[in-house]
Amino acid sequence: MSSGGTRRRTASVPDSDPDGEPAVTLKKEIGLLSACGIVVGNIIGSGIFVSPKGVLENSGSVGLALIVWILTGIITAIGALCYAELGVTIPKSGGDYSYVNDIFGGLAGFLRLWIAVLVIYPTNQAVIALTFANYALQPLFPSCFPPERALGLLAAVCLLLLTWINCSSVRWATRVQDVFTTGKLLALGLIIIMGIVQICKGHFYWLEPEHAFHPLQPYDMGRIALAVLQGSFAYAGWNFLNYVTEELIDPYRNLPRAIFISIPLVTFVYVSANIAYVTAMSPQELLASNAVAVTFGEKLLGVMSWLMPISVALSTFGGVNGSLFTSSRLFFAGAREGHLPRLLAMIHVNRCTPIPALLITCISTLLMLCVSDIYTLINYVGFINYLFYGVTVAGQIVLRIREPDIYRPIKVSLAWPAVFLIFWAFLLIFSLYSEPVVCCIGLAIMLSGVPVYLFGIYWENKPKSFSSFVARLTHLGQKLCLVVYPGEDREDGNEDREEDG
Amino acid sequence: MNKEDEMKEVELNEMDQEKQPMTGETPTGTEKNGSVKVKVPEDAEVKFTGLSKEELMKVAGTAGWVRTRWALLVLFWLGWVGMLAGAIVIIVQAPRCKPIPEMHWWNEGPLYQISNLDAFSKNGLKGVEEKLDYLSQMKVKGLVLGPVHSVQADQSSALELTSINPDFGSESELTSLLDRAHRKGISIVLDLTPNYRGVSSWFNNAASVAEKLKKACVYWLNKGVDGIFLSDLNDIVNTYAWSSIQAIFNKTDGTPKKALMGTASSLSVDETSLLLNQSGVDLLLTKLPYPAGLSGRQATLMQRLCSGHQEASLGWGLGQTAGSQASRTPALPVKLYQTLLFALPGTPVFSAGDELGLKAGEAMWEDVNSTAEEERTAVRNFFKTLSDLKGKERSLLHGEYVNLHNSPTSLAFLRLWDQSERFMVAVNWGNDSISMTPTNDDLPAEARVRATTDIEKLAVDSKVKLEKLELGSKQAVLLSYPFPG
């Protein structure tokens, strides 16, 4: 879909040249079905293969775990609607970083950028790459651990290969995404079909109401909050549809429709997968497994059990690609706002790929691969990540009050952000209550950005030597990577298009 | 969560580029005019800090820079290929996983023996069913029930191995218990020791009841029972009928393995070892004696059995007389025994109440004062900790047994498996403190405390130096350390 869109936009360039008109308009090529495909394909990731254990463990019973999955889907849909209004009201790249920046000011936006660029993206990418390596080697090491150095090297190989692909071509990057999205959808389809077969065979003891809600351990509100948080990880990616709004046919009707079709569909798929899991494994077995999908495959696939670890590995490979793709665009948005060095917003002269941003992301992720307590670190920042969802949705309410007359093609009732914020506050409070140290460390890491902001951005009259030093670094980077700042004037823009044509 | 948020931002980026001229030439709204104004300072900054396309192409297009970029690209790919080759070499050279030995349900966790159903619950079999959740939470894998069949003391003619004594319940109650237990992953073993109320388990003539026993085994296994337990195994093993009884349990028709288990009293080390080989039972339960307490002879017995037999056939329990609660004494160091039973190769078999440290005369579910309740909870939590470790850790499940130290009043050994976490156990049942100096190539300088009866001196999760391990009177500790590599 993305590559198709890219090709069509490229084709539109010759049309304008013969007429001599410099104006180029985007063709609306994404219909409702395509929009749903984009959302579904990007939400479903490796989370559904590894999160069920955490959700079940913290929920305390099979029935409540399924309710948590459904509830999380509903909250995700509400959040997506709120983001949709922000997306058309503030039509800028950068997602919630741009919204927080515009609504709450530069410092809040910078802290969001700081935590994302410094910790969240590198840590997420490192963890996903390690997960890829782990599952890829699982068929070779079925009952013991693969060598740690091999895991690290394989994760680095995966990361470098995808970095190169993203540097080479936007089209290739999106094709990689499409291929691996197909892979994980097939894996999930296989799980759900096998689950249906199990139910037809009569294996549904744990789905009967009197057993489903039998507590495996006493219910605890703090742990239920953690279960919802873990479920939320599996729904990550719900808010990126904003970036294709201008390509939607009839966006003001299709955007809400796409949300109300896609997210319930994902929720249905996730609940179905969890139901399939408990048809093949007792809750005790599910909790004892470190890789739910793999254990599921071993039980039902027999000699074909290697299919599951490979499917999960492919899914995580696509996840690394997706993360590289999006993180480099965040660098662009941050640099454009002046929160990051200008070099990071530059793109290749011919390929139009953000090479400096991709290289920085790659290097920081490689550094994370050398850190030993990376899983602890990702726990710290998971809380902060969720914190900013609420801040962004709160920003929607603030914007309604501050600029009530601004153009809003999509306008949702204020009840929705209110519901989202109540739920969000509940999660935050119980997360703080359950894991106060972890949450406070996350806050401390985020606040470490304040002095950086004051020195690097707020302080405007920096010495000339500093400015010239930055300029020389920028020039060096430009020469090594052959990158320029995009669209700095009309003539250059025209020349770019002519060459591409 | 943000990792996929901006998947399509590149398209928007390109859209931005294409919109620039249109915006500049055809103002269509105040906002866009505002955008244009905002752009001006940025343009100024860009010109100051960055090279324009023309400037860049002039400099970067020269041979020197082109060569530099190609060199960097070659270095990148050399590094990539090097990493891939390195990963492949490490993987190829890595030792293969040690094959996991065949595991049956009775090898995966502790067994729980309820010999005296009346003491466990007034409701007999129905009462046991009501407590399945309690047992499941402790990771119990199997129940050894009974005996519950009909018999009159010392009258073999009244023996009915296929009938349930009405004092304990009915066959339908047993069927219900079986169904519920299986759904919770708990297997049921029936104790069919014939003359459990009389003087001699086998009426002094095992051969006379062998045929009845054979029929009863077939009957109960067909009903869904998962195994049969027999006391004083040495009496029946020597009869001609034994091989045909064994055959009932050795079917190869693909159905799940049924267990033949037993125990024998007052055997020497050699006699126990011989019985294990001779009987071919799936699990031989060896009872560690009390109130007399552990002895050097018991240490020798454990060591030789662990070293000489497949651990899958070993079972360890407490007490001279099966389930006789009257024999317990208040001074019983129950946590010490729990540590030892869970750490030994083989399956720990606990009598009802062992997980609570039940004392003489105490009832299972009766309300006790708050001090005793706290004590019970602590013992039970300790039991759960050990049960969890046993179920998860490869070394404890099927690791090699390595003796480190033994004396008449103390014992220490290692459990090792492949590249898994190692476990070391030290137990001192004597009246004096001891100091051990364990030596083994595998041992590091220090190890981590995973479970301990001496919380003050050896706190859980603390590090302990191994060159000189001090253990107080009647204390035990379970330590772990990583695979040396």
Written account of the structure:
The complex is a heterodimer of chains A (501) and B (485). Chain A has 21 helices and two strands. Chain A is mostly helical. In chain A, α6 (106-137) crosses α7 (148-168), α8 (170-200) crosses α11 and α14 crosses α15 (355-370). The longest helix of chain A is centred in the N-terminal third of the chain and has 32 residues, at 106-137. Chain A is globular and about 75 Å long. The model of chain A is unreliable at 1-27 and 488-501 (pLDDT under 50). Residues 1-48 and 320-331 of chain B have low confidence and may be disordered. Chain B is elongated, with a radius of gyration of 34 Å. Chain B folds into two domains: 111-398, Alpha-Beta Barrel (TIM Barrel); 400-481, Sandwich (Immunoglobulin-like), CATH 2.60.40. Chains A and B meet through α1, α2, α6, α7 and α8 of A and α1, α2, α3, α4 and α7 of B.
Short description:
The complex is a heterodimer of chains A (501) and B (485). Chain A is an all-alpha fold.
Tags for this entry?
A: 501 residues; mainly alpha; two-stranded antiparallel ribbon; 21 helices; globular; disordered C terminus; B: alpha/beta; TIM Barrel; Immunoglobulin-like; 16 helices; elongated; disordered N terminus
